[in-house]
Amino acid sequence: MKQSLLEVKNVSKIYQMGEVQVPALQDADLEVREGEFLVILGPSGSGKSTLLNLLGGMDRPSGGNIRFQDQDLTRASDSQLTSFRRHNVGFVFQFFNLVPTLTALENVQVATQIARQPMDPLQALRMVGLENRADHFPSQLSGGEQQRVAIARALASNPRLLLCDEPTGNLDSTTGRAVLRLLWDVNRKLNMTVIIITHSQPVARMGHRAASLRDGRIVSLTENKEPIPPEEIEW
Fold it and tell me: How many folded domains does the chain comprise?
């Protein structure tokens, strides 16, 4: 059994919309293990992005408790949450969020300037196979290449936890599978904990475990004895 990295206990998130309360997440219990590949699966509006934001310290729960090892994120101050994100979490989003006026290498360097023990930026680009595109601007890169730069930027801070919010949502199926393979390799080669949220059921077969959400609740948590790399999955 791998060591626990994050623990979510009875967590809820309620948004206030005028006089109406909208529950986005209800009574969530989840343990995230060190070095695992975890898939969070569900349709739009199921609460998976809300859960990811809470895991990454980008939002606070309305109830319950979230712990990162011995750190209580629920009661952490804003500055403590900022430090937690800076030193422990890398983010990969559906929209690449690259700075258009910076080269690929410079986009990666931005992340290293605030990290405690950063990776060499060129090494991070080399890991995603883009060292030969280091001097290119985002407009000179394909969508898949831009996402790989975004992954390199997230890796360059040398995080304990890599959170990926629909990382293939803006990519064609072939490019998307290549990005998923890259994340698979990151998990195994660096022993980095990777969490992906997706609405694609086949992606669940890649994970060591898959949590399914519906209507703001975790309705199932399955364990895959033999996770399957993306190129071997029937899509």
Answer: 1
